[in-house]
Structure formats: C-alpha cells, structure tokens
Amino acid sequence: MNQQLVLLLPLSPLCRRPLATGPPPAELSWGGSCCQGQSGKTGSASPPPGGESQGEAASAAAAASQDARLRVAGLQLYQAAYQKSLPHMAEALAQGAGVNWSNQENGFTPLIQAVRGGSLVTCEFLLQNGANVNLRDAQGRGPLHHATLLGHTGQVCLFLKRGANQHARDEDGKDPLSVAIEAANADIVTLLRLARMNEEMRESEGLYGQPGPPAHSPTERQYGKGPQEFLGGGGCLRF
C-alpha cells in the first residue's frame, strides 16, 4: 500500500501574522468616502449651540408678556366697574380680562367694585358676562353682603334673583340678613325674608319634585305666588 508522506514545513513569517480584529481601513470600507461630508463625518449637521435655550427663553418671554397684558386688562375692568364706565369695561373684556379678576390685597372682584360704585346696570352687565355672584373677598363677604352693608336695595334684589347665597357668613359670622337687621334697613330685611320664604316653600314641596298639597283659599294662593312674582318679575326695578 502506498503511503503518502505529509511534510510539516515551518510557517513563513507572513503566515504567522495574526488576523486584524479591528475595523477595516477607511479606504477599504464600503462607501467610505462617498458617505462622508466635507468634515469626514457622517450624519446631519448638529443644531447651533444654544438653539433650544433661546427658543425656551422666547416662549417664556411671550408667556410673561401675555400675563402682563391680562393683569392690565383685569385692573382696567376692576377700576371701570367702580367708575360705572361700561365702554371701558367692554374694552377690558375684549382684551381678555377675567370677569372674576380679584385684587390680591382685599379680594375685591369687579362685581364687588360695581356694588361699591352703586350702579345696578354695571352689576347686571358683569353678571351677563359670567361674573360669579357668590365670590367673596378676604373678609368672607360676597356682593350680597356688600350691597346689604351699603343699603343698595336694588342690587340686593338683583343678586337674589341671580342665585346669591344669602346664608353665607363672613368672618364675623354674619349673614346678609343679620347685617340688614343690625342696619335697620326694612326694605332689605323684607327682601331677604321673602327670598328665604321662597326657598322654604320650594323645599317643602313633595319628594323628588312632586308638588305638595295645593293651596285652596285665594289668600294661600296669593301668599304662595308673592315671593316668586316679586323676585322673578320686575320687583328690583322699583328700588
């Protein structure tokens, strides 16, 4: 049997060089030069330094400017309500003034200012534009409290028609009726008692909105209609 001899020859120095494990040279990489920009780096250019911070600063400045404009408009509405200036009030609202803007020192709102100014029309204008009739100042007094303290009977009637809470108490624990009794203002005391009578009559109706026993005598029917007709009709215009 013929046997083949395998000669083990020593490796040449070229064969002993270890294989390269790193990335191929740039000149051998696929697309090495065609995919690089002038700087020799791939990808899009980075944004200029400080670009994001400049955008944030611009947004913050715009927001601060908007807040300043709204504060100026709110102050204009606040002052115009006291001065009974409907054109300036309308202008302030058009500029974005909050109809319930409040003075941080005393908590007065434009509606309270309108009460202090003594104008029934100004109060109605603010209510028509969404003023909250139950917002109170720093002493816990709402528009109804202020109107009662100042003896503005027409405003008291208007606020009762608009759902003012006559049971709210100020920081001294007084509700509008207590204030009116102390001031011996018979007209306002009558209005507030009529409003309470109206509430009690509604609460005394049957459960789940079912009406209670009907009134039989003409006196009972007239007594029942009195508060609703006065507060819901043109009673406020008499004052």
Automatic annotation (TrEMBL):
Its main location: membrane. ANK repeats lie at residues 106-138, 139-171. It is found in: Endomembrane system; Endosome membrane. Keywords: ANK repeat, Endosome, GTPase activation, Membrane, Metal-binding, Repeat, Zinc, Zinc-finger. InterPro entries: ACAP1/2/3-like, Ankyrin_rpt, Ankyrin_rpt-contain_sf. GAP activity stimulated by phosphatidylinositol 4,5-bisphosphate (PIP2) and phosphatidic acid. Pfam families: Ank_2 (PF12796). It is a peripheral membrane protein. Residues 23-62, 202-233 are annotated as: Disordered. One of its GO terms (molecular function) is zinc ion binding. GO terms for cellular component: endosome membrane. GTPase-activating protein for the ADP ribosylation factor family. The BAR domain mediates homodimerization, it can neither bind membrane nor impart curvature, but instead requires the neighboring PH domain to achieve these functions. PH domain binds phospholipids including phosphatidic acid, phosphatidylinositol 3-phosphate, phosphatidylinositol 3,5-bisphosphate (PIP2) and phosphatidylinositol 3,4,5-trisphosphate (PIP3). May mediate protein binding to PIP2 or PIP3 containing membranes. This is Arf-GAP with coiled-coil, ANK repeat and PH domain-containing protein.
